[in-house]
Design goal:
Largest sheet: 8 strands, mixed
Low-confidence stretches: none
CATH superfamily: Alpha/Beta hydrolase fold, catalytic domain
Distance between the termini: 39 Å
Structural class: alpha/beta
Strand content: 5-15%
Strand order of the largest sheet: 1-2-4-3-5-6-7-8
CATH architecture: 3-Layer(aba) Sandwich
Mean pLDDT: 93
CATH topology: Rossmann fold
Number of helices: 11
Radius of gyration: 18 Å
Order of helices and strands: HHHEEEHEHHEHEHEHEHH
Length: 294
Amino acid sequence: MPLVRPELRRRARLIPHPPVQLRATRWLTSHGQTLFPIPRREGVELIRHGRTLVFRPRNPKGALLWLHGGGHIIGHPAQDGPLCANTAAEVGVTVVAPRYPLSPAHPFPAGLDAALETWAWMHTRADEFGEPFAIGGESAGGGLAAAACQRLYDEHGPLPRAQWLFCPMLDDRPTADRRRDLPRDRPVANNAQTRYAWASYLGQAPGLETVPEYAVPARRADLSGLPPAWLSTGDIELFYEEICAYTRRLRDAGVPAQLEIVEGAPHAIELWAFDVPVVKAMLASARAWLGEQL
């Protein structure tokens, strides 16, 4: 892994590449409350509301709807337990992390609909969770968060104060290029896996001329009017180009957008390398930005 920065190489080698096409793999990685024990953070109360985890600090100054990653096909909010608990403690916001329906059993728009149902539910508990609200997510969850902002804008719903997008999965079209399947040992996420994920979510091959509205955030023609955005990416990860392009388009549309690029970083470092100094610095910057918006 010559391109991976030295302090991340050992961990990157240890990350498995499960065959996500197998039903057993999807089942195992989507039952995360046993696979991912949730850490406790002093001053943060962990509350379970059905399929939703709530991380509530004392005297919250706002709330964040957080959507986990996993390519729309695997994942569980518990996998983001450290990120959610630490964000609640350090930013002083309630973090609401739902378990949304996954593909291929529940293709688009099931996950987005569930996210927006949670968003509406949060507004009924503003006195408990704190205001104002932001929305964020990681990988596929970051894509869902971006899509939710687009739909809320069009439907004149309550817009979030900010969108907080870690290595978001934004565009189906690059995965259609099978030349990107090499190298197959790309750390964390590769093109073949992502192509399967998009096909499962969309119910059609990725890269076709048309897709359902709000299914693919990067396909939206007009990004004006959306909330301020913070985005992150590693410069060797699969989504690097699409994240940079989306950031440029947000700025061109008049949306304040901050992009953090970590040199030599693969996908999702905020989850598996959060205690490495370069990642800690990125997370500190992300949380400072979020705190300024709320």
